[in-house]
Write a structure and sequence with these properties.
Radius of gyration: 16 Å
Number of domains: 1
Structural class: mainly alpha
Distance between the termini: 32 Å
Number of strands: 0
CATH class: Mainly Alpha
Strand content: under 5%
Order of helices and strands: HHHHH
CATH topology: Four Helix Bundle (Hemerythrin (Met), subunit A)
Length: 164
């Protein structure tokens, strides 16, 4: 099923976050000499987009989804993911970060995004009427207005590498 236009801004942000996850996966194991560059990029992406994205989902999408009893357990799971991811975004910006922390963050973020896209968004599109989806889209536009809409340019240390 095609993504409803109301959810497309979130899906575009998911695509950019997945691109980061692919770059981290291909760079793994991350060399300790490049760890600082990864930390800086991850921190910038969280501040400019992912943190705002999480808030928009929690304030707009999740409350709408909770109106459907079948989606409540999924939303609870996604909220727990957000808490874990926020904590680990903070960990990866700390001085004692290990390369394995960055790799674990990318794996969990990728799994979380796929859960939202394949399960939550898909089911919301099936359950919600077009007017409710349009209202959701307007609320999301407002909630996302302060996030960046551009990819971070990778450094030499964080650029995409050929698959191993």
């Amino acid at each position: 099923m095609l993504r409803d236009r109301s959810l497309i801004p979130l899906s575009h942000q998911h695509q950019r976050a997945l691109a980061l996850c692919v770059r981290i996966d291909r760079a793994s194991p991350i060399d300790e000499s490049g760890l600082g560059a990864w930390q800086a990029e991850i921190g910038q992406i969280f501040q400019n987009e992912i943190g705002i994205h999480f808030a928009a989902e929690e304030q707009v999408v999740f409350p709408s989804a909770r109106t459907f009893a079948e989606l409540i357990p999924l939303v609870d799971d996604l909220c727990a993911d957000h808490a874990w991811l926020r904590e680990h975004f903070a960990v990866t910006s700390g001085e004692r970060t290990l390369a394995s922390d960055v790799t674990l963050l990318a794996q969990r973020l990728s799994a979380h995004i796929r859960k939202e896209e394949r399960h939550l968004f898909q089911r919301m599109q099936e359950l919600m009427d077009p007017d409710a989806l349009a209202l959701l889209g307007r609320k999301l536009d407002e909630a996302l207005k302060n996030s960046t809409q551009a990819c971070v340019v990778p450094t030499e240390a964080t650029r995409l590498r050929a698959a191993k």
